[in-house]
Amino acid sequence: METLLQSSRATANFKADVEAYVSGRGAERVKVETYVPRVKVQRLLTQLLSVEPALEIEQVVIRGTAGCSNFVGSVDVHTSAGAHVFDFTWCCRWKAEAEGFTDYFGFPDQLRAAQEFDWRCFQQWKRRASN
Fold first, then answer.
1. What are the boundaries of each domain within the chain?
2. Fewer CB within 10 Å: C terminus or N terminus of the chain?
3. HSE-up (13 A, CA, CB side) for residue 78
4. Would you write out the chain's pLDDT as a tens digit for each of its 131 residues?
């Protein structure tokens, strides 16, 4: 995360709030509108910083639902130049199937996929068109 933050054009305040959030503290610039496990939000922030390093991010608002193997929703990314919305699906079951990972019983090995790929289990990351 530190490397992604350093290479990102996000504001210093946003970067500080991401570090706070990852450390388990409050972060006013990382807003989560519904309950989502912190680890899933952290994966989303990692994806955002990895895929969109040129955005001068000031704040994010995350909306989504999390299940055992997935996290689906949208993130509003506020920048000095305007807002961007990304729809996303993080799914370790999908990644396990894509990689051919199976457990002892022949089911997709979601745990292995989540451990090995962590935030790289995004099945969808799509910027919405501007209105």
1. 2-127
2. C
3. 10
4. 999 999 999 999 999 999 999 999 999 999 999 999 999 999 999 999 999 999 999 999 999 999 999 999 999 999 989 999 999 999 999 999 999 999 999 999 999 999 999 999 999 999 998 75
